[in-house]
Amino acid sequence: MDSNHQSNYKLSKTEKKLLRKQIKARHTLLRHEGIETVSYATQSLIVANGGLGNQVSRNQLLPVLEKCGLVDALLMPPNKPYSCVRYKTVEESKKAYDTLNGKEIVDDLGQKIILYLNFVEKAQWKELGLQALPPGLKVIEEIISSEDEKMLLESVNWTEDTENQNFQKSLKHRRVKHFGYEFHYENNNVDKDKPLPGGLPDICESILEKWLKEGFIKHKPNQLTINQYEPGHGIPAHIDTHSAFEDEIISLSLGSEIVMDFKHPDGMTVPVMLPCRSLLVITGESRYLWTHGITPRKFDTVQASKGHKSGIITSDVEDLTLNKRGIRTSFTFRKVRQTPCNCSKYIIC
Predict the structure, then answer these.
(1) Which portions of this protein are annotated as coiled-coil regions (predicted)?
(2) Strand 299-303 to strand 82-87: parallel, antiparallel, or no bridges (unpaired)?
(3) Residue 187 pLDDT exceeds 60
(4) Can you give the pLDDT at residue 144?
(5) Of 165 and 254, which is predicted with more confidence?
(6) Which percentage of the chain shows pLDDT scores above 70?
(7) 78 lies in the same domain as 180
(8) pLDDT, tens only, 276-311
(9) What is the 3-state secondary structure (H, E, C) of the chain?
(10) Residues 310, 238 share a domain
(11) Which of 13, 188, 320, 327 would you label with 258, given CA atoms 20 to 30 Å apart?
């Protein structure tokens, strides 16, 4: 459809429907996002429904846009159902407006989505600026080999006799096994007087000894919780009980990468990428003050640049895309505390 609405051309029924959808998208952008569209052609277009929040990835949308001309920038803000494309010329932008309005694409879940485009003078989003990892938190990439990962995953028998004390029936959203001590999710604690027989698996003992020797961890854990997460599942934001465990909590990610959110009591949230075969080490302030959790969803917003693996997911709207989750198994190790908590300086102890 031509962008010149002043024309005397009589619209067809399909074109009228498309125009109504465009106008609705325009009003929604203004009302909820404060983005004002214009009726004349510019280099920039807002692409309604073509956003990360609609499960549309950068790799999926960019080739569609590039068919209409040279794309100068594609801005995809996190969790929003729209994006902004800037072309090199107004002519290319106008071609995209005329060609792609009402175009149907398929998102990463296989669902059909229809794009609606409107011109804008410019689109700006408030960015969080450069963030740092929460104090006391570190992510160590490739801490084990793919061969060790395979052995660890194969060592977990999810089908064994349910009378085994290490076995716990599936929680609402995941399968769980405990070693050393059973972790109680209702209070994020353990019963120190009821250790489980057998201790930690032998394969874990040798890996932990290696990490201790190489200085990756400071304490040898005596409690292990193994969780298996299907895509779309997560864990509520929480802090592991101060009085239950020592300062250091470590978690090994196997099978698939994940984004974990760390939240400060003042409301600041830091999303952190945990690659496959990486070790998350939580100590100090990040252990005692920040909550950590995984949002239940099937896609994570991640950096598009290939060099970015672990660490903070920045708010750079020119470098964000979607990453489909796979089945992730986490080995979370803790050392049960035998003495009272000594972290009185933290307000939520």
Answers:
(1) none
(2) unpaired
(3) yes
(4) 95
(5) 254
(6) 85
(7) no
(8) 999 999 999 999 889 999 999 999 988 887 665 666
(9) CCCCCCCCCCCCHHHHHHHHHHHHHHHHHHHHHCCCCECCCCCEEEEECCCHHHCCCHHHHHHHHHCCCCEEEEECCCCCCEEEEEECCHHHHHHHHHHHCCCEEECCCCCEEECEEEEECCCCCCCCCCCCCCCCEEEECCCCCHHHHHHHHHHCCCCCCCCCCCEECCCCCEEEEEECCCEECCCCEECCCCCCCCCCCHHHHHHHHHHHHHCCCCCCCCEEEEEEECCCCCEEEECCCCCCECCCEEEEEECCCEEEEEECCCCCEEEEEECCCCEEEECHHHHHCCEEEECCCCEEEEECCCCCCCEECCCCCCCEEEEECCCEEEEEEECECCCCCCCCCCCCC
(10) yes
(11) 188
Give the pLDDT confidence score for residue 128 in this predicted structure. 43
Question: Which amino acid belongs to residue 314?
Answer: T
Chosen domain end from 86, 120, 154: 120
pLDDT at residue 8 tops 60: no
- What average pLDDT does the chain have? 84
Predicted model pTM: 0.71
Token couple for 288: 């005692």
Q: In this structure, are residues 248 and 257 in contact, taking their beta carbons and an 8 Å threshold?
A: no
- The tally of domains found in the chain comes to 2
- Among 226, 234, 258, CA closest to 330: 226
Structure tokens at 201: 């698996």
Tokens of 292: 């950590």
Among 64, 94, 120, the domain boundary falls at 120
Within a domain: 128:
no
